[in-house]
Design goal:
Helix content: 55-70%
CATH topology of one domain: Amino acid/polyamine transporter I
CATH class of one domain: Mainly Alpha
Radius of gyration: 26 Å
Largest sheet: 2 strands, parallel
Strand content: under 5%
């Protein structure tokens, strides 16, 4: 059942006796290089310098800030060690199948995240909707890099600036440096009436955060304006020459964070109270497994962590050589991403266990801050209590975060650049990079205002998360049922000469679409007006938020209508509509010689497989044919 080309079919075996070779055999006996037999009129597409550059780039893209500060808190909030069960199930049934599918479609077609839908032009709006979402991700992700860079610079002070209270913060502040605390201060902190200097520093000095944004978001913090500019300079420098520059940088971007993680792991596990924190992180809360919210959190974490359904994986894979072994790379990245999340959780909660120990409390939950606060409050608060050279570990931690941010945002930004360059083939890449980086920078200035964290959560939900989930469903349907699982498996056989397992066939066609659809239904049923730290947004922003979502999802209708309206003029409107669901004539490998072989391979395959009649026969044939 896992055969992609029906080679066990008796009719096929009989045809072999009459032919000297099959199109598939012909292809593998006469494989061309990427530079061979390319259409001279087609714009030249870059390729990775070697296969390892692609793997390292995927690792740098998928292993990012989400593994360090998002996964540990999400796991803790949703059952601790028990969260690993729904997370791993979701990874196997949703994350890995989508990751492999996007790799396949990108490498097979050598097309970016929009043009890859040449297999069904009416669905091209998926790519444009993901383009909008990934643009928004790039703008707010860079603002987190700006915060990280500010903390990195502050780590070079002789006394860490968040380790002590300022006079203007009053009696409600407790020094994060435990050596300056009194027993009464510790008791007060245990009661929860006071806040640490690390929290005051983040909220009052770094963010200058407002209580609400009813009167606007304020003006940007000039220090964060500068660090945001440096963040975008770093990103632009990595992608300036496309994969020729980002591929070389990927070795450092992917490997260096693990060197730092190893150092921090050793340090964190040698701190007093560290093992209490790790056990608190890993201890299962089994009752959480029956909570639908936990499964929702697992799916969103998989999307966020692996960077699936944003077009970035398709983009990176499109620069591969045609026969690259992406099945191996998919397994490596998915496994490494999970292990990195676990490693980050152990490091973070080892340090938080020490923070609880130094604060004379057994309630580790009380020292944990949500989201970015975990990286910018809890960790700085803990590191301020280190007896020896806290500046060194602070520099290492925030440098690691910044490098992780560059690696991920370089992939995100490259997706935006690739879509633009694929659309405007005569545009100079350096000009596209420069203009787009400036636009992203200007857009990102709103995140470094006093109301910036309000806007980050707002854009993340309405412009990214909701849009990505909806478009993911259409992406799966378009690939599995419009183009067809059978055709995908046929293309894999032609490209890699491997048969697709029943696991991928069933996930692509049934399990993964149902899983993601259930998550969307849960989001809609359980929807409550968005809040930030318990503070609601102005009423008009909710209306604008849904309009932002409509713009992203509405790309399906806009580009669907465009494909329908611009079909062959000799066809009627109903025929144009049906025609828009069919692949374009040049769909297939980019190299002209490979494309001709592929077209012959498809023709022969259709002849051998025959026409299936009836709904269930077609349903079965699409999955197992």
């Amino acid at each position: 059942m896992s055969q992609a080309t029906g080679m066990d079919n008796p009719a096929y075996k009989k045809s072999q006796s009459d032919l000297s070779s099959t199109p598939e055999d012909d292809f593998w006996q006469n494989t061309t290089t990427d530079a061979d037999a390319e259409d001279p009129n087609a714009p030249k597409r870059d390729n990775w310098g070697n296969d390892l550059e692609f793997l390292m780039s995927c690792i740098a893209l998928s292993v990012g800030l989400g593994n360090v500060w998002r996964f540990p808190f999400i796991a803790l909030q949703n059952g601790g060690g028990a969260f690993l069960i729904p997370y791993l199930i979701t990874l196997v049934l949703v994350g890995k199948p989508i990751y492999y599918l996007e790799m396949i479609m990108g490498q097979f077609s050598s097309r970016g995240s929009v043009k890859v839908y040449d297999y069904a032009p009416i669905m091209r709006g998926i790519g444009f909707g993901q383009f909008i979402a990934v643009f928004l991700i790039g703008t707010f992700y860079s603002s987190l890099m700006a915060l990280t860079l500010r903390y990195l610079i502050d780590s070079f002070y002789a006394i860490l600036p968040w380790s002590y209270c300022r006079e203007e913060w009053g009696d409600m502040c407790i020094d994060s440096n435990y050596k300056a605390q009194s027993e009464n201060q510790k008791l007060d902190e245990g009661i929860g009436l006071k806040k640490t200097s690390a929290e005051f520093y983040f909220v009052n000095i770094i963010l200058r955060e407002k209580d609400n944004i009813d009167d606007g978001i304020g003006v940007p913090n000039w220090t964060l304006v500068l660090t945001l500019a440096f963040s975008w300079l770093s990103i632009a420098a990595v992608v300036f020459k496309g994969i020729k520059s980002s591929g070389k940088a990927s070795y450092f971007l992917a490997i260096f964070p693990y060197v730092v993680m190893l150092i921090l792991l050793i340090r964190s596990l040698t701190l007093p109270g560290a093992f209490d924190g790790v056990l608190f992180f890993l201890k299962p809360q089994w009752d959480k497994l029956l909570d639908a919210k936990v499964w929702y959190a697992a799916v969103t974490q998989v999307f966020f962590s692996l960077s699936i359904c944003y077009g970035s994986i398709v983009m990176y894979a499109s620069y591969n050589r045609f026969q690259h072994n992406i099945r191996r790379d998919c397994n490596i990245v998915a496994t490494l991403d999970t292990l990195t999340s676990l490693l980050s959780g152990i490091i973070i909660f080892g340090i938080l266990g020490n923070l609880a120990y130094e604060s004379n409390t057994n309630d580790i939950q009380s020292v944990v801050k949500e989201g970015p606060g975990l990286a910018f409050i809890s960790y700085p608060d803990a590191i301020a209590k280190f007896n020896a050279v806290p500046q060194v570990f602070s520099v290492l931690f925030f440098l690691m975060l910044f490098i992780l941010g560059v690696g991920t945002n370089a992939g995100v930004f490259s997706t935006v650049i690739t879509v633009i360059c694929d659309r405007f083939t005569t545009a100079k890449r350096w000009m596209v990079v420069l203009v787009t980086a400036v636009v992203c920078y200007c857009f990102g200035l709103m995140y470094v205002t006093p109301g910036g964290q309000f806007m980050l959560s707002y854009i993340d939900f309405y412009g990214v998360t909701f849009v990505a989930i909806v478009l993911a469903i259409f992406e799966l349907i378009s690939a599995a049922w419009i183009y067809g699982v059978k055709n995908i498996c046929r293309d894999i056989k032609f490209m890699l000469n491997v048969n697709t397992s029943i696991y991928y066939r069933i996930c692509w066609s049934i399990i993964t679409p149902i899983f993601v659809t259930a998550i969307l239904i849960y989001m809609l049923v359980e929807y409550e007006p968005l809040q930030y730290n318990g503070v609601p947004y102005p009423d008009e922003l909710y209306v604008i938020g849904w309009c932002i979502s409509a713009v992203g999802i509405g790309q399906l209708l806009i580009w669907g209508f465009y494909a329908w309206h611009n079909g062959p003029s000799e066809l009627s409107f109903s025929e144009r509509f049906r025609h828009a669901f069919k692949p374009l004539p040049d769909w297939g490998p980019r190299e002209l010689k490979n494309l001709k072989r592929y077209q012959q391979f498809v023709a022969d395959h259709q002849t051998l497989s025959g026409q299936k009649n009836g709904f269930w026969a077609k349903f079965y044939d699409n999955i197992f044919g």
